[in-house]
Amino acid sequence: MNIKKLATLIIISSSLALSGCASSLQGDTYSRDDARQVQNVQYGTVDAVRMVVIEGTKTPIGTAAGAVVGGVAGSTVGGGKGAIIATVVGAVAGGLAGSAAEEAITKEQGVELVIRKNSGETISVVQQYEPNNPFQVGDRVRLMTLNGAVRVTR
């Protein structure tokens, strides 16, 4: 297998692994562990809505995949002379690039909601933006709390 095919295979498999590990931060998505758990429910009104960016994940997967691709690419430089140095430099550079790529791929559009609860307390919650179900100032919402995590729904 040539180096280009190997690099392509590693990048594709890493992308699939990264997308499979991503968990949803939307208000209407629950993990399997959250199903059938008792949640505390409170009500409130949206006072402010602001678009934010939820940073991407930074796991060893992106770094490792980038390092492998960079190391393989670096090992072909120099035709045997300096190949070890080129391999190490390629692996380091590839690891940095792989880590940055993972973060960029998993970055999400979020929304910050400032909510005045019926109790009078004001809180802020950030969750993934849902373009098909955007929040507006004045919306009545439910605050669903489970194990310290809060999700906002209508």
Structure, described:
The protein is 38% helix and 29% strand. With 154 residues, it is α+β, with helices and mostly antiparallel strands. It is built from 3 helices and 5 strands; from the N terminus they run H-E-H-H-E-E-E-E. A 5-stranded antiparallel sheet has the order 3-2-1-4-5, with no helix packed on it. The mean pLDDT is 78. It has 2 domains: 1-23 and 56-106, no CATH class; 31-55 and 109-154, OB fold (Dihydrolipoamide Acetyltransferase, E2P) (Beta Barrel), CATH 2.40.50.
Give a quick precis of the structure.
With 154 residues, this protein is of the alpha+beta class. The protein has three helices and five strands; from the N terminus they run H-E-H-H-E-E-E-E.
Q: Quick one: how many beta strands?
A: 5
What is the overall shape?
Answer: elongated
- H/E order of the elements? HEHHEEEE
How many angstroms does the end-to-end distance come to? Answer: 53 Å
SS-based structural class? alpha+beta
Q: Number of domains in the coordinates?
A: 2
Beta percentage is 25-35%
- Radius of gyration, Cα only, in angstroms? 22 Å
Low-pLDDT residue intervals, each spanning 5 or more residues:
none
Number of helices: 3
Helix coverage percent: 25-40%
Average pLDDT level: 78
Q: Which strand order does the major sheet show? A: 3-2-1-4-5
Give the biggest beta sheet.
5 strands, antiparallel
Layout of SSEs?
Blueprint: H1 3-21, E1 40-54, H2 60-75, H3 83-106, E2 108-117, E3 122-128, E4 140-146, E5 149-153
Antiparallel strand pairs: 1-2, 1-4, 2-3, 4-5
